[in-house]
Amino acid sequence: MSRTFSKAIGRSGLYLSIAGFTFFAAFPFAWMAITVFKRILDLYNIHNNPFLFNLPPTMENIRLLFGETLFTRWLANTAFVGAFVVLITLLAAVPAGYSLARLARGWGQKFGIGIFLTYLVPPSLLFIPLARVVSALHLQDRFWALILVYPSFTIPFCTWLLMGFFKSVPAELEEAAMVDGCSRLGALRRIVLPISIAGLLTVVIFAFTLSIQEFVYALTFISPSAQKTVSVGVPTDLIRGDVYYWGALMAGALVATIPVAFLYSLFLDRFISGLTAGAFR
Length: 281
Known about the structure:
By secondary structure, this protein is mostly helical. It has helices spanning 2-36, 40-44, 60-67, 71-103, 107-119, 123-136, 144-149, 151-167, 171-179, 184-195, 197-213, 216-221, 230-238, 246-266, 268-276, and strands at 239-240, 243-244. Helix 4 (71-103) packs across helix 8 (151-167) and helix 8 packs antiparallel against helix 11.
């Protein structure tokens, strides 16, 4: 009886912990959703319950976001920049990570750590020299500048991430493939990459997330509203002086975060396996 009671207590504690973490994770989305449909008078009245609709819900904030700003254009720019950055990151990080994991001997690990350290350099120290590069290539006020700049911090991190994952793939599989006639590149394409889908997916999610949430470079290099991404367009166009359009701001944040949250939840198992794959070598 006591053992059954202890199991029930333990299970109840587990469920309560999960419920607490779930509430903690879902609270920002719930707060944004409530704010999106609140009227301005209801939102700014400090005597009203912030979690209830004291006045009838409204679609005015959504109309402001989609009708009076270039939000759909910002979404398209963000998706375009993110897709290009992911492609460039994969093309550079896959061969770099594989070379450091397989071909480099003792110095490969140290060199990989050095590459990762470049990711830790703050953007506030780099945007001035990068601005010279962007100016020399005549890419000012164009989102192509972001496609040029963002790989400078996605490639080092993803290279370091792929190093650990490639080390977890048994070298004997590649050696067997090369005995059967594959070249080193053929073994990489036929053996290593199919096994490394979880790691590649992790790199894709990380690179895409890092590129769409970046703010400093996007604010520095892009001025025209039509060329902005969501991370810059929403706060700069919906904060006018001391006037904050909170409903439209929350609507923009909610619409921009839902696809990323859905992507994380859809590939959560592969994402976690990709993060932990290199921890056992």
